[in-house]
Design a protein that fits this description.
Two copies of one chain form a homodimer.
Chain A (H helix, E strand, L loop, with lengths): L5 H11 L2 H6 L8 H19 L3 H7 L2 E3 L2 E3 L4 H10 L18 H14 L1 H20 L2 H13 L3 E5 L15 E4 L5 E11 L9 E7 L12 E6 L1 E3 L5 E4 L2 E6 L10 E6 L11 E6 L5 H37 L20 H33 L2 H36 L11 H8 L9 H12 L7 H19 L7 H24 L3 H6 L1 H24 L2 H14 L2 H11 L1 H11 L3
Parallel strand pairs in A: 3-6
Antiparallel strand pairs in A: 1-2, 4-5, 5-11, 5-12, 6-7, 7-12, 8-9, 10-11
Helix pairs in contact in A: 1-3, 1-10, 1-17, 3-6, 6-7, 6-9, 6-10, 7-8, 7-9, 9-10, 9-11, 9-12, 10-11, 10-17, 10-18, 11-12, 11-13, 11-17, 13-17, 14-15, 14-17, 15-17, 15-18, 15-19, 17-18, 17-19
Pfam families (chains A, B): Acyl-CoA_dh_1, Acyl-CoA_dh_C, Acyl-CoA_dh_M, Acyl-CoA_dh_N
Organism (chains A, B): Aminobacter aminovorans
Keywords (chains A, B): FAD, Flavoprotein, Oxidoreductase
């Protein structure tokens, strides 16, 4: 059973990702450590005691579709109600609409806990919060006043409707139609797939944000508009009224996150009897500028999906550690007790557990640092704002892709530590792997994240922003070296080497892009994202260790450096030396 | 849908693993290429056309337990019958008992195909063949003549009963009791768990090989005996008669291989009404020497589970490649056709596909080479026999652990290539990952394999056998260098470096063991097994390329060297430099 690691989360927020310094500088008004700790403590209690116990019924029962209505697993509707009553949905919401206006960092940290307790539970509010952000930034005042307060409180939920069968990563291919109805509203027609929480019984209304094309729109991504399409049209008094012509026609049977309804949504097919076919929608932002609005949601959603990777890794680690302490097999020299040794004493099991813990904490530090950059961008102005916005943009693909890869790898190690029991569903270790496997895929596959990093983030600030960041990480390595402490082992040396690798590979990719050798750069994108993330994660673990000199933190950052950071050399080779053979082999073997 | 890669399998057997040279030398009598090709072709047809179509019903329906009887999925019983009628179960069986006496290599190659088509189908016969081997080597003539012919033909199936709730990796802890009944038979009492195909409706009888303790047996592994316990006792005429007191009390609900019944078996609990409680068993081999008998089965079963990793990786690759050719998203510079590019043209997808293919072929080459060593050991005498036996022993942990890790990694990459569709069960990509996940666990976890490699296999031949093998691999690297061909890129150089790493790390571990620093050696065991396997796999891919100079094989071995072999440096660091920090971190963080 998951126990929220409240102290570890608080420490990472404050001392690794920068919350403490920002609070000390008054950046977040009167937000102080006491309030931060109180919020995290209460969230931890709620996640551990109220969400986690409903994990299993969610996984086993799943969401059920019947006659267009989705029933959530037993107890889940009440759980959601308690959760919104606790104010957890409104944490980051704008104060004007009843939100608490707390930093993104707090939202991300609490979201980690909900997702650790149940990824299937966490993903619904994640997307709803994204809808809030898109509306707040781009919608008209009328739409905001009609919808935002209810979405912020969680009384209603929002969804993101992007994907169509032929349009997944490539949104240019989408075909859902929007027609002007003459009264300022639009009619939407088309089919969307993979719509998370597209239909459910949590709330009285569901507010769909839908990408569609107007008849006279240009082809490609410059012809996409964003619409708000509520499940129930609103009465004069703002309450849900007539059923809109949007229906769920199917839910997917998935590998994991069974309680999260993944819906096929049909717009404007006339299912709503007695009405003209066509789902009534309202434009958000300007016509044909929908993608820009959607990117507001997507960028944050990417970080929040990254947090799912951290979250499931944390739970998998806790579960594996508990099992390793309990399960006894064989002898171990470090165990002097009676009978067989708990397997936690076997060096091979220790390596797996430490790898799990180190990767989880590295991923957490990256994700929280990304959240910090988002917060700083929001409160800053001028060049500072641009700097922090660039930083958030740079870190988003790392936070999404690295963390979710870590989620899968750590969950898989967790299964392995359980031995045969890991393969039995009752144990719950396998369920975490099943859940974790979606996160590298949705909100932009990790391959797309790597392409985004190389082609859109390396050029930031004329290609200089990335080196500013690397310089900051280098400062950490130098600080470790300056400690001159045996406890850190070879951490400083290895970190310096890895930073050198990161720098030289970054220049290599920038040069390839500059020379128009885009395919070569793209061929190295995935190893580059991993290399970058390992270096950042290693540096952040060192920053954590330096922050208070705690023996455990030092041991973990040293373990990471001496056991995991060595991978960077191989990744560097793959990027600089491996792409020619990739092109040759692809030609000979797969696309011939 | 799986199509057996018959030519690739034949090539790997003949030109990488040594079958051709052995046949040319007359090692396997009149076995020649024509027969080999004919067998593989027909097996490929059967696997692709008869086994694979029943995969999905097996996964969806699973094996069902009711009133102690297990019903296999619809069509499976007939499938098994056709399969035994085709002679596939008897391929490696001893000729004296109706087997075809073909080399293990042929059994392994065909087993790969059954497992590619369905791991849940392949695992039953795998264990049954192990039972044949244990009986053939250790059982009395009476037992052999009563059981072997039926087990060889597949009319009956055999099982391995080792695991108990408290005794998984550590068999010393097992408690199942055996009592002498006075008439030469024994009565068995106890519970076994995780018994693969412990109960099913494929055959009229099931022959359990069961580890148990006699009342006066020494403690630990020197007090374990092996018994044959049939589901039905035999009548005078050898047909199944009275029900024995062994019953299946439950089957596990597992992550994957749903059609493989994983049974809890209760021995001697008196369920068989009207009889004295106690399952009637016959001793195999000598009292208290059961583990030695069981190791006969286990060693080969380890190789055969390794083949499951290769098998599922092959299927995952085929599925992903087909999807990547069909699915279109975005633009790619290498695609000049109309509309969106098939995703196989995207460099990142190509990297994933090539990684899948290269790892699969490397794992296959290692597994087949292990099978070759087993064959050579069987037909050799004197020093040659010892040499080949050592070689088989050395390669078994690599074949088991590396291949099954590859199975999981490749299946996971396959899910990723499918994008959102990969998470939908209907697509079938996720099912392969679910299936693959057991193979690193059963028949000795991969952690146990690594410990076996370091502590039992490195000392073989006074610690010299391993260097003889490395020397052979070095010969391949030298041959690549001698080609002096641009097409190989930096293959020779990288392979030489990796071989140097392997040698130095091997000496390092041998020294640690010699110095009694066992824990340090164990802490490096898993990275060492992977390092060893990557080097061997890389060398074998080069041997394949050298064998016929085929452009595709050269491209693949170069891709492996330039993209995957670089990992060896990091693994070396982890082994030589990482274990101190592991010990420190374990003390500080997890076993405190």
């Amino acid at each position: 059973m998951y126990r929220a690691p409240v102290e570890e989360i608080a420490f990472a927020l404050k001392h690794v990702a920068g919350l403490k310094a920002a609070m000390d500088a008054g950046t977040f008004g009167d937000l102080g450590e006491d309030l931060v700790d109180a919020i995290l403590g209460e969230a931890g209690r709620f996640a551990s005691e109220e969400v986690a116990p409903l994990y299993k019924v969610g996984d086993r029962t799943g969401a059920k579709l019947r006659d267009g209505a989705v029933t959530m697993p037993p107890g889940w509707k009440e759980l959601y109600r308690h959760w919104t009553e606790g104010g957890w949905n409104s944490l980051n919401g704008p104060e004007e609409y009843g939100g608490q206006g707390l930093p993104t960092m707090m939202g991300v940290a609490t979201l980690e806990m909900w997702n650790s307790a149940s990824m299937a539970f966490g993903i619904g509010p994640t997307l709803s919060m994204g809808a809030v952000e898109a509306l707040e930034k781009h919608a008209s005042e009328d739409l905001k006043s009609a919808y935002l307060a209810k979405l912020v409180s969680g009384e209603w939920m929002g969804t993101m409707n992007l994907t169509e069968p032929q349009a997944g990563s490539d949104l240019a291919a989408l075909r859902t139609r929007a027609e002007r109805s003459g009264d300022g509203t639009y009619r939407i027609y088309g089919q969307k797939i993979f719509i998370t929480y597209g239909e459910h019984d949590f709330t009285d209304n569901i507010v769909h944000l839908v990408l569609a094309r107007l008849p006279d729109a240009p082809a490609g991504t410059r012809g996409i508009s964003l619409f708000l399409v509520p499940k129930f049209l609103l009465n004069e008094d703002g309450t849900p009224g007539a059923r809109n012509d949007v229906f769920c026609s199917g839910i997917e049977e998935k590998l994991g996150i069974h309680a999260s309804p993944t819906c096929t949504m049909i717009y404007g097919d006339g299912f709503a009897k007695g009405r003209e076919p066509g789902a009534v929608g309202w434009l958000i932002g300007e016509e044909n500028r929908g993608l820009a609005c959607m990117f507001t949601m997507m960028n944050n959603a990417r970080l929040l999906v990254g947090i799912q990777g951290v979250a499931v890794a944390e739970t998998a680690f806790q579960k594996a550690l508990a099992y390793a302490n309990e399960r006894r097999q064989g002898k171990a020299s470090s165990y002097s007790g009676e009978g067989m040794a708990p397997i936690v004493h076997h060096p091979d099991v220790q390596r797996n557990l430490l790898t799990m813990k180190a990767l989880t904490q590295a991923a957490r530090a990256i994700a929280y640092s990304c959240a910090h950059a988002i917060d700083m961008a929001r409160v800053s102005t001028g060049a500072d704002k641009a700097h922090w916005q660039d930083r958030a943009n740079l870190l988003t693909p790392l936070a999404k892709a690295f963390s979710t890869d870590v989620g899968v790898d750590v969950a898989s190690l967790g299964v392995q530590i359980h031995g045969g029991m890991g393969f039995i569903e009752e144990t719950g270790a396998a369920a975490l792997l099943r859940d974790a496997r979606i996160a590298p895929i949705y909100e932009g596959t990790n391959g797309i994240q790597a392409i985004d990093l190389v082609t859109r983030k390396l050029p930031l600030g004329n290609g200089e922003h990335v080196f500013g960041y690397v310089g900051e990480l280098d400062g950490i390595a130098i600080a470790v070296a300056a400690m001159n402490s045996e406890a850190y082992g070879r951490t400083a040396l290895i970190l310096e080497q890895a930073l050198d690798d990161l720098q030289s590979v970054t220049r290599h990719l920038q040069k390839q892009l500059g020379d128009g050798r885009t395919d070569d750069a793209l061929a190295g994108a995935t190893p580059y994202l991993r290399l970058f993330s390992l270096v950042a994660g290693g540096a952040y673990l060192a920053r954590a260790a330096l922050a208070d000199g705690d023996e455990r933190r030092i041991a973990l950052c040293r373990f990471f450096a001496e056991n995991l950071l060595g991978e960077t050399a191989a990744l560097k080779d793959r990027i600089t030396g491996g792409t020619a053979s990739l092109a040759a082999a692809a030609k000979a073997l797969i696309s011939a």
